[in-house]
Structure formats: C-alpha cells, structure tokens
Specification:
The protein has a single domain, classed as P-loop containing nucleotide triphosphate hydrolases (Rossmann fold). It contains ten helices and eight strands. Strand 5 and strand 6 form a beta hairpin. Helix 2 packs across helix 3, helix 4 packs parallel to helix 5 and helix 6 crosses helix 8. The structure holds adenosine monophosphate.
Amino acid sequence: MNIIFLGPPGAGKGTQAQKICAALNIPQISTGDILRRAMKEGTETGKKAKSFIDAGQLVPDEVIIDIVKERLQMEDCQGGYILDGFPRTVPQAEALDTFATIDSVIELDVADQVLVDRLSGRRVCVKCGATYHLSMLNGETHCSNCGEELIQRNDDKAETVLARLKVYHDQTAPLIGYYEKKGLLKKIDGAQGLENTTAAILAALGAKA
Ligand code: AMP
C-alpha cells in the first residue's frame, strides 16, 4: 500500500508513520529526515536546504521532487511505503502523480494551539532521532533509548514554528482538497492520544494492528 501522511508540523506524522510502518512492514520515507541527514553530512543538497529549513520555509520543489523520485525506485519501496512530509505543495503532488500511484492519504488534523505547544516543547535525540516533550522529561536531558543528548531542533524555536504553520496553511493545506477530489483522503483526529490515533489510522486503512 502506498500511503501519504498529510498534516501540519507537530501533528504526529513522524511518530504515527513509524508505528504504521512497523505494523504494515513497509518503509517510512521522511523528507525532513532525508534533508536533516544531508545537512549533517554537508552534501550539496544539505547546503542548499539549510537556509530554507532554518527559516521554516520549504526547500524548492525541484530539489525535493528528485530526491523522492529516486528513493521510491529503491527495492524496499516496491511493496509499499509511507510518505511522511511529502508532498507539501500542489506542484509536488502533481509531480508525484507522474511517478507513483497513491492508494490512501491520511490527514492528521490538530488545532494550531496544540501544535505550537507540541513543537516548542519538542526535544529530539541527536543520535537516534527519538522525540520527547519537555513536559514528560522531568528535567532529563539525555535519550532514554540510546543515552545521547536531547536538543531542540532549530526550526522548533518559537518564531520559526509560527512561520512553519503559516507555510502549512498557505502551501500544504490545499492538498487536502486535491486528494479529497481524488477520493483518497481520510481525515483522522490527531489530538486523541497516541494509541487511539494509531488505531484510527489502521482502521481507516482497513488494516489490523
Ligand atoms: P519535517 O521534519 O517534515 O517537519 O521537515 C522539516 C523541514 O524540511 C521543513 O520545514 C522544510 O523546510 C523541509 N522539508 C521537508 N519536506 C519537504 C517537502 N516535501 N518540501 C519542501 N520542504 C520540505
């Protein structure tokens, strides 16, 4: 099954995609993770992407479309995948239609107020990428999975969070209508708690946990 996870930053796309991928045994293709890895490794793509990401803006369509096109051709994607964070603009969705067939689009719906709190309190492990919320950490500064340091992503700082939400509403939200028209959209309440959300997504996909 080829699935898109759509939703604003902080809606839980990454966390839920990880769970659903494990349940369905398919890979999670996170364009944010791919770009962050490229920045860390200092590749040409990473260098191009950095200023956009740090400002909370989208990297140009032509940069990201080629990355995804190449990734979907790999062997592990032939039995299905979840796209987490792509497409984010109508031109990206139109490009995707030329090289992939999508079966379902899961829209995670969460109010802006909740998103601001989730993103500005988010901490991530520098090594394994596990995510936490400040309110759950009780002062802990290291990852409970691998022991490495927890940091705040540059683009989770308050001023950038608001820019990212605006970008979502202006540039990505039109995809809701785009996929609704194609009859692919399944809207899920993303504020009902982690496990309930996972169960709701699996049910919408007609899959079992
Ligand atoms: P994410 O981890 O999905 O929130 O992505 C972090 C940042 O990476 C975004 O704010 C964008 O700057 C960039 N990014 C990720 N995916 C895309 C995409 N499909 N198109 C453009 N920029 C993207």
